[in-house]
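Researcher: Go.
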Amino acid sequence: MPVKQRELRASWGPDGRPRLAYRTELPGDRDLQDVLWARCPQRRGPDGLPTGDPQWRDVHPARQRECMQRLLCQVCAQPARTPKGFVFLIAPGELKPGETTLLTAQPPVCRRHTRTAAALCPYLREDPTVLLVPAPRLHGVVGALYEPAGPRIRPAPVDLGSLPYGHPFLRWYLASQMVRRLHSFEVIELKELADGR
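Model: Structure:
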């Protein structure tokens, strides 16, 4: 469910400058870098984990943010660390020859759910590039830029894609996905994960 424009307003930030805000801001509406996030309802089971079938083409902002922030598996929401780092699945052809750094909004996967994610996610088309990343770094967010228009707020007529944390436009950005920078990675085969990597 998209955020309605009437829910947004301009407010004064802690630095005394105007920024995008909700009319009634709640704890958790901003990330640790003070960026405002799109609200979207979600159901959680008795175990505290999200319930329902994955909507692969309609990423849930809060679930994606939680998995990226805490480096949790995108399938089971449990820690995704392996003994040699984190496993990220990249769409076929996304990694160009010789490329050593890549930005991704795809959360990692645990070793147990690598094949499940590869089979179910249409983005990966069952033949992903598998990256073993020792230290994926937070980079920024994907979202939508807004601007003040008199007493109202409206979407800006430009798509900026992802912005790095620290970018001055983030004060007017409504984030929907967190982005990590992958570097110093090793490209491996899916079967290597089954062998204990």
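Model: The radius of gyration is 18 Å.
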